[in-house]
Write a structure and sequence with these properties.
64 residues, mainly alpha, 2 strands
Length: 64
C-alpha cells in the first residue's frame, strides 16, 4: 500500500525539477521578462501544482 503513495511523490518531484529548470532557463534576467510568456505561464502552473501536491503529501505523512 505504501508503494502506491510513493509513486506520486517521485513522479511529481521529477516533474517539479524538470519544469523548474525549464522555467529558470526561460527567464531573461537583464530585462526580467520571459522569452516565451505563454509557455512560461504553462510551466509556472505545472510547477506550482507539482509543488502543491508534494507539500500536501508531506503534511499527510507528518500527521500520521
Amino acid at each position: 500500500m505504501e508503494n502506491k503513495n510513493n509513486v506520486p511523490v517521485f513522479t511529481f518531484s521529477i516533474v517539479a525539477i524538470i519544469v523548474g529548470a525549464a522555467l529558470y532557463k526561460q527567464i531573461d534576467f537583464e530585462n526580467l521578462k520571459f522569452e516565451k510568456p505563454a509557455l512560461a505561464i504553462v510551466y509556472l502552473i505545472v510547477f506550482v501544482f507539482s509543488v502543491f501536491v508534494l507539500i500536501k503529501n508531506f503534511r499527510k505523512k507528518t500527521q500520521k
